[in-house]
Amino acid sequence: MFHSRLPWRHAALYVSVAGLALSGCATTAEAQSGGATTITQAEARQGAQAHPQLLQEFGGAMTGPQAQYVEQVGKNIAVRSSLSNARDAFTVSLLNSSVNNAFAIPGGYIYTTRQLVALMNNEAELAGVLGHEVGHVAARHSQRRQQTSTRNSILGVLGSVLAGAVLGNSQAGQLLTQGIQQGTQMLTLSFSRNQEIEADRLGIQYLRAAGYDPRAMGTVLQSLAAQNALDASLQGRRDATIPQWASTHPDPASRVRSALQLAGNATGITNRDTFLARIDGLTYGDDPAQGVIEGNQFIHPQLRFAFAAPNGFYMVNGTRAVSINGQSGQAQLTTAAYNGNLETYVRQAFAGLSQNQQIAPQTLQRTTVNGLPAMYGLTRVNSGNGQVDVTVFAYEFAPNQAYHFVGITQAGRSGVFTPMFNSMRRINANEAAGVVPRVIDVVTVGPRDTVQTLAGRMAYTSAQEQRFRVLNGLSSSATVVPGQKVKLVVRGR
């Protein structure tokens, strides 16, 4: 959240990837042959216009050897589609985001996050994911998304999410759990199940054409499903259906089976060792420049603040906000333009929650939290599922800088967030300096190494073995052998 290299304002965002839909649907012949036949000038203009906004929303484009490698693989697979035979027609970006995500937009723009790349185990899987996204564009799947996103882009992401929760929108809870960044992800991934399977088929087609092992599409889907299940377990959720690249739609297991069946017994190159060597040192999880989650604490070393989530809640860090989710409520921490008047700031935060009805605080109270001037407001509104309490709690950090929580609970339950509101604090230089990134460390299995000893070197205090197995695509019974290369997540510098 709050990437320090970018100018932050209110978390409302009007970027809508789905709004870049092409004018016209794919014909059956186009879909069967791989999709669209060319990148039109109109598509190129649309993509070029949205590209900078997408980079900003997803943490910015990474540079250096790792980004260059992803670009190389992405362009190699993209030219296997019918969109263009020229590598220069495509722009491939590695995004500095801790969300498992990949997407492509018209105009030849292809994206994947570093988190998703870190989950992969060979170059063929990377090519498969990027090929899948190119397949969506080639098959003209964006047409239906345009109609959806036109409605969704009326409000900023934060406003639409919270207004949805207030007004009983069933998608609001999903968006809140994902944070602002994943809220945008929901707009970019609103494909039907049949479209997802068609994109898988096209991705496998491109893999074959490039000489890769076509089974890589199925194996990366397996890893993503396993990661979803692990995240659900770690966060205390009963399901594993938080929207991710591979599980936006129900029954991801059937997509795995379908992808493996489409691949058949064909073989090809995977370039595993090359891939692992090229991603060695890649940042994993939160970038300290965007703040990090450590246990129940969120710490931002550059903006110098920290807070703790209540017991029983889990956090998800997005580029523009941190979401806090639990059975008894949902909240987000974000920021907005501040002119030095906290009351105005709080009232504007309420007003920005919906364009369909006027929302204003029924009570306002000034206070001080750990030396920070603060103000909070509370209101009760009717939602589709009964009455809910909405709280805005704001803090002044400087004459021109404020941050605020927006919390939603059932009526009478707003106190569940009181410990969190009271935990907001400044951090000193020493505490900030102690926040370091986690990175991927590729190691060679030694003669005495086991899954358990290697997992013990993971930079986590819980679920080390489960994290290690998912990261390396290992089943619950798989072992490691000397000479094998595996990934660890360790503390960086």
Automatic annotation (TrEMBL):
Gene Ontology biological process: proteolysis involved in protein catabolic process
Q: Which GO terms describe its cellular component?
A: membrane
Q: Which residues form the signal peptide?
A: 1-31
The protein's required cofactors: Zn(2+)
Q: Which UniProt keywords apply?
A: Hydrolase, Metal-binding, Metalloprotease, Protease, Signal, Zinc
Q: Where exactly are the transmembrane stretches of this chain?
A: none
Q: Which InterPro entries match?
A: LysM, Mito/Outer_Membr_Metalloprot, Peptidase_M48
Residue intervals of the LysM domain:
441-488
Which Gene Ontology molecular function entries are recorded, alphabetically?
Answer: metal ion binding; metalloendopeptidase activity
Q: What is this protein called?
A: M48 family metalloprotease
